[in-house]
Amino acid sequence: MTDRDINIVNFIHEVGLATTKNINDLFFSDVSRTVLSRRLNHLVDYNFLKRIRVKELNNSYMYYIDSKPKHLVHELIGTSFYVALSNLGFNIIRFMRNKKLGNCIIDIIVIAEINGSEEVFFVEVQRHFNHITKCTDKYKELYYSNAWKEVFEDFPKVVVVSDMKYLPRYSEFEVLKIKTDCSDINKLLS
């Protein structure tokens, strides 16, 4: 195994699952797709990774390690957020899915560093099943519960990854909305 192979396996272990595009964007942007395919085939052939084709993603491959995640598209949006954040220049220190804090289950908690400064994000992926207000109001409840103070010094920025139009405003904490394709991830730098 190469160092890059080890980094790919560690990345997928951390995020849970990734598409070929996610892996390409993070580890193979400087080489041909043939090299990428050869390395991924090697990792699958030697059982370091498992893969399946996903209909919702034009039959693209999705890679994982242990068991196939249940909410594929939802979780892949979170992985795309990780890749976009990393490509924006953030060093991802921790990436945690479905963490409970107080009575709130947070889709993703990201602790990242950029330019010597540490940032924490509560990330909520919203795919049109619940109204966006229902998904963001839980952070207001979390804020007032003070349960976050046991872990964080300041209340983290809430990032809603969604293509829905409406986003409620909260005076207590900052909420940013990013598209599901993460094309506007640079909002996090402001």
Report on the structure:
The longest helix has 16 residues, at 72-87. This protein has helices at 3-15, 20-27, 33-45, 72-87, 132-145; strands at residues 17-19, 50-54, 60-64, 91-101, 104-114, 117-126, 157-162, 175-178. The chain has a 5-stranded mixed β-sheet with strand order 4-5-6-7-8. It has a 3-stranded antiparallel β-sheet with strand order 1-3-2. The mean pLDDT is 91. 34% of the residues lie in helices and 29% in strands. The chain is α/β, with parallel strands linked by helices and 190 residues long.
Q: Alpha-carbon distance between the termini?
A: 39 Å
**Cross-sheet strand order for the largest sheet:** 4-5-6-7-8
Shape: globular
Strand content: 25-35%
Low-confidence stretches: none
Radius of gyration: 17 Å
User: What share of residues is helical?
Assistant: 25-40%
Order of helices and strands: HEHHEEHEEEHEE
Structural class: alpha/beta
Number of helices: 5
Overall number of strands = 8
- Summed over residues and divided by their number, the pLDDT gives a mean of 91
Major β-sheet profile = 5 strands, mixed
